[in-house]
Each structure stands twice: as structure tokens, then as C-alpha cells.
Amino acid sequence: MSSYTAIKLIARPKPGPVTPDIFEVVQQEIPKAGPGQILIKQTHMSLDPAMLGWMSPDPESYIPPVELGAVMRSSGLGEVVESNHPDFAVGDRLMGIMGWTEYCLSTGQGLNKVQPGLDAETVLSVFALPGLTATQGLFGFGDPKKGETIVVSGAAGSVGSLVGQLAKAEGLNVIGVAGDDEKCDWLVNELGFDGAINYKTDDIAAKLKALAPKGIDIYFENTGGPIQQHVFDRMNAHGRIVVCGMIADYGKAEPSAGPNWIPIIKKRLTIQGFAMPDHFGDVPALVARLTPYVMAGKIKHRAHVLEGLESAISGLNLFFTGGNKGKLIVKL
Questions:
Q1: How far is 248 from 321, CA to CA, in rounded Å?
Q2: How far apart are CA 232 and CA 239, in angstroms?
Q3: Among candidate residues 41, 38, 40, 31, the one with its CA nearest the CA of residue 107
Q4: Rounded Cα gap, residues 22 and 320, in angstroms
Q5: pTM, whole model, 2 decimals?
Q6: CATH code of the domain in which 79 resides
Q7: In principle, which of 113, 157, 292, 327 could form an S-S bond with 125, CB 3.0–4.6 Å?
Q8: Are both 264 and 149 inside the same structural domain?
Q9: Domain limits at 24?
């Protein structure tokens, strides 16, 4: 009897860093594919800030929380090793929701075939959730126009780095916000951002005034925290604020206070929150829109790879510390 490793969520996280005791590492027998099913051996797993919300019992969340006792939810990349499904053959590489597990039994629903020739890091860093989120958020809600100024928080992260590069390719003035000088240097000198702000050490108000003297048209919000009010204060009339994430508040018992609404009226601002499960039906169109930028060499990425399934447990805390350098991926 052959077995594999999976990790289940057995308790809700408390405010602060994620602790190992909320998970259970289990050994299970490798299943056989039944009628209409496929068995996938997962090779690479994505770690995303959204997971911190998925573990919460919040009944008003955009997606049901992971049930206690269930395998922790995540997206990943894997290879079909057994198939009783007419649309999938042994050897096909697929990406989609697979969970914290070495093997996944599926009907194929929600899984997409991976274009041949793409390495795992490119798939998960660009064409999976980060790229889909960046493309939907910027073009679906940001309405970018050449010559405008966009500020991206969490700009060195998997989503933010792609948003900034897509905006730059569209001719915008792009300002990224990150948490250390190395990341800021990467944004400007490798990705081509017009400027970067270290929110931990820079005078944020002064830096924004210098980098965005004509104000800000689009704010792509990934983090919350001290940058938010400063950007809000410099928004131009008819500006757009796209709210993708609030990592600065995910580990807090009480969220931070938000900006006053009066400027929203005066400046006629549009503020749009979004979550990708609402747009999974648009994945083919989003990939089609993203691909030309990648093929033209306008999109770069870097991955922070952790080894072994159990590294995911401590790896989640890198989102709080900012210790990851690029897209967080677990190699199984």
C-alpha cells in the first residue's frame, strides 16, 4: 500500500502569526481514479495571501472558509498519473485548486491544461492566480489610460509586480510601494517602475509628492497599512481605487480605520473591491489578454521556492514579515 502526505486545517487561526498547531499532517493511501475521475500528482503548490482569509470562519467572506478537518485549500500545478476522463490523458499538466496535498483526485472541474513549454515557476507566478488577478483588477476595474499615474502597494509581491508591469506597458507612470530597499531597487531597476517607496523608512508623503506631482489616478491596494491614507490624500478627481488585498490587517484582532468618505464625494472617486472567484469564468479571456505582454518580453517575475509540503505551514508567515522575494511556491 502506497501512501502520500496531506495537511488538514484543524483549528481557526488566532490574531498574529500562523502557528503549526492549527494544522495536522496526515498520511493517506493513494486513491484510484474512479469513473470520470483523474488522479493528479501535484508537483508545485502556490502560497497566496488569500489563504489567510480562507482559514477564517468569516461567514461574509467571498468564498466559504476551509472546513475544519479538510485539506487546506490552495492552487497548484500537477501531472495526471491516472485518467478515466475523456478530456484528460496521463501526462497532461494541469493547474487549479488542488490543496495542500501530494495527490489530488478530481473530476477535472476548475482545472485548466498548462501550455506546453512553460516551466512551473512561470505558470504559478504569471499565468495562475497572480496574473489572472492582476489582469482582472487593472483592466477590469482600474481603467488605465496612457499618461496617468498609478500607485501599487505590495508592489514587489506576485500580484503587485505584475500590475505595475502591465501598467507600465500601457504607458502609465508607475510607483511601487514595498518594505525594503532591495525590493524597491528591483522594482525600479529590473521591472522598470518609475519610482518606488520604502514604506518602512521613507517619508511617504514627501516621496509621493515628488514621484506623483500631478496626483494619483489609480491606486491598486494590496496591503493597507500606513501608505493607504497618504495615497488617498493625493487621489485626483475621478480616480479609481482597486482593492485587492489588505495583508496589513489580516492578522489583527481589529482592522485599521479607513479614510474619511468626504473626499470620495468631492473627488468622485470609484472604489472597487474584487475577488477572483467571481471571475473564474473569464479565465480564458484573461489569459488571452495577458499572454501578448508575456510573449513581448514585457513581464518579468521571480519566485521564492520552499522545499517540501510541510514548509507551507511556516511559509505563510512570510506574508506578514515580507520575507519572501517574489511569488511564494512550494516544490513538492
A1: 10
A2: 10
A3: 38
A4: 17
A5: 0.89
A6: 3.90.180.10
A7: 327
A8: yes
A9: 3-114+302-331
